[in-house]
Amino acid sequence: MKNIIETKKLCKTFSNGGVLQHVLKNIDLTIRQGDFTIIMGASGAGKSTLLYALSGMDRPTLGEVSFCDKDITSMSTDQLAIFRRTNCGFVFQQTYLVDSMSVLDNVMVAGLLVNKNKKEVAEESERLLKSVDIEESLWNKFPTQISGGEAQRVGIARALINKPSLVFADEPTGALNSKTGKDVLDVLTKFNSGDNAQSIVMVTHDIVSARRGNRIIYVKDGEIAGECNLGAYVSGDPERHQKIRDFLGRMGW
Q1: CA torsion sign, 112 to 73 to 92 to 124?
Q2: What is the pLDDT of residue 120?
Q3: What is the dihedral of CA 96, 171, 186, 207, to 10 degrees?
Q4: Which domain holds residue 36?
Q5: Are strands 88-92 and 166-170 parallel, antiparallel or unpaired?
Q6: Residue 67's pLDDT is what?
Q7: Residues facing residue 227 across a β-bridge
């Protein structure tokens, strides 16, 4: 499969009261097209920092990130913003939907940043809302008038509106109960399946969520400590769950 992202000696250092904290240390990582890559690790291991560096939301201190054959570490702030808008989708623990805009408009406004044809954007937004199981009766509701699970699925539709090369998800089920979390994971899994599988990188601390990926990258003290290849997701596979538990045990989870 084609590589979407390749990193070389990726490092991120913060200064805290004059004390340097090396959050990422010489990360070499490849993300392939069609992969559902899970990033796991203990709190403070550098999971989210790695995700932000891969997506261009944060600049590494040293090293290189090649994204779709472009060195994004050498881009200006404006170039990075345009690149992210057209190549990346983002789903966070908090949905960051605009409360003063309808569900449909929240998806459309992201699409209009790239495609100025309002009719095309409206049609694609409606198609995506249907595909994430948001009923038409909710499209004109405000985010405060729908459930947390529904809002997260709207966020997924928004992340997909510009047909991104890669969707980055940071703890997307972290604020949801198990039922609504499963619904969100089902949506992500659906988009990751088939011949044109959407590539996804997801940070999670949850084994149930991790089962949806085809590979797990374990980050420990800012370094990649190990990788577990799982193959395609199959619902209700007890061996998959045990394989993850065994892997995390070896990692010191």
Answers
A1: positive
A2: 98
A3: -170
A4: 3-250
A5: parallel
A6: 96
A7: 217
The amino acid occupying position 233 is: Y
What is the reported pLDDT for 18? Answer: 83
Cβ neighbours around 178 below 10 Å, total:
10
Sign of CA dihedral 44, 48, 53, 56: negative
Q: How many CB atoms lie within 10 A of CB 226?
A: 15
> Are 202 and 39 contacting, i.e. CB atoms less than 8 angstroms apart?
yes
Structural domain count, the chain? 1
Amino acid sitting at position 163: K
With tokens 């345009």, the residue in question is 82
Give every residue of the chain whose pLDDT is below 50, as ranges: none
Q: Residue length, the chain?
A: 253
DSSP 69: T
Task: Evaluate whether 209 touches 173 at the Cβ level (below 8 Å).
Answer: yes
Q: Residue 226 in 3-state DSSP?
A: strand
Q: Mind listing the pLDDT tens digit for each residue in 187-196?
A: 999 999 988 8
Half-sphere exposure of 75 (CA within 13 A, CB side): 22
CATH code at 232? 3.40.50.300
Between the two ends of the chain, the Cα-to-Cα distance in Å is 30
Tell me how far apart the alpha carbons of residues 165 and 220 are, in angstroms, rounded to a whole number.
27
| 184 and 150 Cβ atoms separated by less than 8 Å | no
> Cα separation of 182 and 19, whole Å?
41
